């Protein structure tokens, strides 16, 4: 019941948002939105990377497979959100919607076309980097398995064995 109440409150919050222009001239507004939808113990400096953040470029270019999209002419995200759990993903989607921002999701870096970290249009977008979502949960009793977006157990095992 608590989960239903939580999801309902998230939905209501998303519906009450006032859409703004698709540029984030005021990052503070997005930060306020994000901090109001995540756990109070969340370290926003490990969740949100602005273009002037020291780790922004390294995070952006960390999984680009096609270097043609690493050029200065390629539109870059206004910010990168790197959630550690599904609640941070939900909060990111709500805040992007509130601010009228498009989202590009990146998980495993297997995107040679560059669709997950660039935009063909000059519109503003946020990169939702799902790299931290790597767990696998198996419920044997109910015959259910949950695999998070960036999980690549074979690749991780192979890289540890090398």
Give a verbal description of the structure.
With 162 residues, the chain is an alpha/beta fold. The protein has a single domain (17-134), classed as 2-Layer Sandwich (Uridine Diphospho-n-acetylenolpyruvylglucosamine Reductase, domain 2). 33% of the residues lie in helices and 14% in strands. It has five helices and six strands. It has a four-stranded mixed sheet with strand order 1-2-4-3. A two-stranded antiparallel ribbon has the order 5-6. The chain is globular, with a radius of gyration of 17 Å. The N and C termini lie far apart (46 Å). Its cofactor is FAD. Keywords: Disulfide bond, FAD, Flavoprotein, Glycoprotein, Signal. InterPro entries: FAD-bd_PCMH, FAD-bd_PCMH-like_sf, FAD-bd_PCMH_sub1, Oxid_FAD_bind_N.
CATH class, named: Alpha Beta
Please trace the helix and strand order, writing H or E for each element: HHEHEHEEEEH
Shape: globular
- Helix amount: 25-40%
Distance between the termini: 46 Å
Taking Cα atoms only, what radius of gyration do you get, to the nearest Å? 17 Å
At CATH level 3, the topology is Uridine Diphospho-n-acetylenolpyruvylglucosamine Reductase, domain 2
Helix segment tally: 5
Q: Return the domain count.
A: 1
Structural class: alpha/beta
User: Biggest sheet, strands in spatial order?
Assistant: 1-2-4-3
Mean pLDDT metric: 75
Low-confidence stretches: 1-24, 157-162
Summarize the structure.
With 162 residues, the chain is an alpha/beta fold.
């Amino acid at each position: 019941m608590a989960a239903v109440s939580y999801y309902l409150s998230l939905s209501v919050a998303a519906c009450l948002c006032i859409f703004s222009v698709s540029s984030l001239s005021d990052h503070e507004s997005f930060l306020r939105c994000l901090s109001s939808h995540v756990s109070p113990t969340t370290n926003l400096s490990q969740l949100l990377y602005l273009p002037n953040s020291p780790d922004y470029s390294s995070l952006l270019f960390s999984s680009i497979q096609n270097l043609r999209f690493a050029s200065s002419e390629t539109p870059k995200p206004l910010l990168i959100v790197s959630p550690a759990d599904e609640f941070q993903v939900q909060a990111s989607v709500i805040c992007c919607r509130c601010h009228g921002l498009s989202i590009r999701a990146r998980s495993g870096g297997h995107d040679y076309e560059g669709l997950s970290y660039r935009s063909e249009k000059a519109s503003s977008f946020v990169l939702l980097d799902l790299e931290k979502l790597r767990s696998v949960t198996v419920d044997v009793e109910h015959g259910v398995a949950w695999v998070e977006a960036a999980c690549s157990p074979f690749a991780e095992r192979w890289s540890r064995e090398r």
